[in-house]
Fold:
Amino acid sequence: MKKEDSNLFVSALTELKETAVAQGNVISKEQLEEILGDMNLNDEQMDLVYQYLKDAKIGVDEPVDADEYVVGEDRKYLDMYLEELAELPPCSQSKKEALLLSAMAGETSVRDELIQAFLPQVADIAKIYAGQGVLLEDLIGEGNVALAVVMDMLGSQENAGEAEEMVVQMVMKAMESLVYEVQENRDSTSEIAEKANMVLEKANALAEELLRKVTRDEVCQETGLSREELDEILRITGWKIEVIDQ
Structure:
């Protein structure tokens, strides 16, 4: 796939996800065909699309039961959280639309009520990202922060439908950013751990060969690490690799 085609493909997947989330994490086959347009995807690429939708817990024509992905402590927290939300006054879709229109017109008095109206939806969105290394409690918290922030941005939308879509997208992006950040930190930690294990293994082998403690320069030469990289690993591990002369 050419770079331009690859960029279009990624953009199409993003649009698919945003459209689905705004509809309760479901998309129709007609929408699927419309968004993919004239990309002329082959069978292998279409398989990638459906795998992407499956991984994102997006259903085609009928929603996926995201509840089945919420287990353990996440399930306990969600049940408790939903019990708390059940104590709030119910809000119909028509009432939510009226609140959105008022907020769009700059009426700050409806802000708290509108936020409350979206809280169950934030919890539903959080279930989509469950099981990706972030606690459901943190996902909901991040979503609620985004919800509060987006309240001041609704005046830029043309109608209640667009405003609601904007809210959903902001909440979704906040949760995606949190998942990405946690995964990136985990990858970084894993990489450091792998390097630390390599340093320990190489330093021990070299010390055993030389029958003495080894210098940091010798460890750098043996591992291919720079002095700065080695010193950072030694610092993180508390300078506890005893065979290295420090």
User: Anything to note?
Assistant: The first helix runs from residue 3 to 22. The CA atoms of residues 123 and 189 lie 29 Å apart. The chain has three domains: 3-60, 66-186, 188-236. The longest strand covers residues 26-27.
